[in-house]
Amino acid sequence: MNKHARIILGLSVAIALFATFAVAATAKAKGNFTSLLIFNQSTGEVRLLEDPKLLSFFAFSDFKEGMKEAPTHGLGYEIWRLHDGQQRGGLFAFDHLHYYPRGSQSNGYVFYDGIVNGRSEYDQLWFPSTAEGDVLFEKEIAHPANAMPFQWSWGLVAFAALVFGIIAGFTLAKRRATALAQHSIH
Fold first, then answer.
1. Which among 36, 14, 1, 3 has a CA at the least distance from the CA of 168?
2. What is the spatial distance between Cα 98 and Cα 78, in angstroms, rounded to a whole number?
3. How far, in Å, CA of 90 to CA of 24, rounded?
4. Is the pTM of this model over 0.70?
5. What is d(CA 178, CA 186) in angstroms, rounded to the nearest whole number?
6. Alpha-carbon distance 148 to 160, whole Å?
7. C-alpha distances in angstroms, 136 versus 14, 52, 99, 122, 148?
8. Strands of 77-84's sheet, edge to edge?
9. Would you write out the chain's pLDDT as a tens digit for each of its 186 residues?
10. Chain centroid, CA 141 distance in Å
11. Rounded distance, CA 69 to CA 107, Å?
12. Among 29, 50, 71, 122, which residue has the least CB neighbours within 10 Å?
């Protein structure tokens, strides 16, 4: 592949990546733990919540009395807590946990998967949820005033732009290489 073809390929990939990140950068964020990305394991529904009461580290549990063995629980919610990446741009995941509502039990449970790209003393442990956390979370799930539906269509557009850019880059590079090869033969 000659220098010109590599430049075209590089530009095509760069444009595709720019289009992908431009879509991701449209998310609004105002500070640390700006939102929660919540996946309902029983329905498959995805929500983005921005209630300030749910955004503190201890909103679901006080993270005392961690246990390694799983308590009895049903299906719950997978939660990614997101930070505003003002220096890095856009939102990024800070940590990951699972919340299981109390149901018929006295309290719910939190399984703390851990900090993304890090570790803590809470990782991979089960914690009882706080009564306040249970009430607040149940209120938000039952009456999601701040819920923003996740826009899968934007993700699809970004993915399509990336794939199209890569395909276009390879196609242009191959055509250019073929044309140069034919030109050098004649």
1. 14
2. 5
3. 7
4. no
5. 13
6. 23
7. 43, 11, 12, 22, 17
8. 125-128, 109-115, 91-100, 77-84, 35-40, 46-49, 148-149
9. 677 656 665 555 556 444 444 434 333 333 357 888 999 888 888 888 888 888 888 888 888 888 888 887 788 899 999 987 666 667 788 899 999 988 888 888 999 999 988 999 999 999 999 988 898 888 877 555 555 555 455 565 666 677 777 887 777 778 777 777 777 776
10. 19
11. 16
12. 71
Burial of residue 123, with CB atoms counted within 10 A of its CB: 0-12 exposed, 13-18 middle, 19 or more buried? middle
Q: To which residue do tokens 């914690």 refer?
A: 127
For residue 38, what are its two tokens? Answer: 């919540």
Lookup: tokens for 53? 């009461």
Question: Which amino acid, 27?
Answer: A
Closest CA to 77 of 101, 59, 57, 104: 101
Q: Which two tokens stand for residue 21?
A: 């990140």
Q: What is the 3-state secondary structure (H, E, C) of the chain?
A: CCHHHHHHHHHHHHHHHHHHHHHHCCCCCCCCCCEEEEEECCCCCEEEECCHHHCCCCCCCCCCCCECCCCCCCCCEEEEEEEECCCCCCEEEEEEEEEECCCCCCCCEEEEEEECCCCCCCCCEEEECCHHHHHHHHHHHHCCCCCEECCHHHHHHHHHHHHHHHHHHHHHHHHHHHHHHHHHHC
